[in-house]
C-alpha cells in the first residue's frame, strides 16, 4: 500500500521531533534557550557577518521580533554585536562567549552521537538522508524565491 505525502511527512516530523528531544533538549534547557533563540543562534553561527535585517528576512518575522530575541541572547552573552564599518547604524552579529561554548558542546555531542548511534547506521543510508534533506531545502528556497519575485 502506497502512503500519501502527508502520512510520510507527518511520520518524518514525529521522528525528527523525537530525535531532537532525545538528544538535544537537555542542552538547550541548560542554557535556557527557546527554539527560536536556538534557531537564530544557529543562523548566526553559520552565516558570518549576518545582521538583524538578514535574520528577519530569512525567518520571515518582524525586525521588532528579531530585536527582542537578539536582546535576550546578548544579555545571556550568547551573541555579540559589532558595528558594520560600512554602515554605522547596522550591526554584524557573531557568537558571544556562551554562544561559542554552546556550539562547542553541540560539536562534542555530535562526536558522542557518531560513536554511540550513527556509526551503527550504514553510511550510505545517512548520505541518502542528507541528500534528501538538501533537495528538500533547495526546493523550499526556490519556492520562496518565486514568491518573492511575484511580490515585487
Automatic annotation (TrEMBL):
The keyword Coiled coil does not apply. Residues 5-138 form the HTH marR-type domain. This is MarR family protein. The keyword Kinase does not apply. It comes from the Bacteria. SUPFAM superfamilies: Winged helix' DNA-binding domain. Keywords: DNA-binding, Transcription, Transcription regulation. It comes from Bacillus pacificus. The lineage of its organism: Bacteria, Bacillati, Bacillota, Bacilli, Bacillales. Transmembrane segments: none annotated. GO terms for molecular function: DNA binding; DNA-binding transcription factor activity.
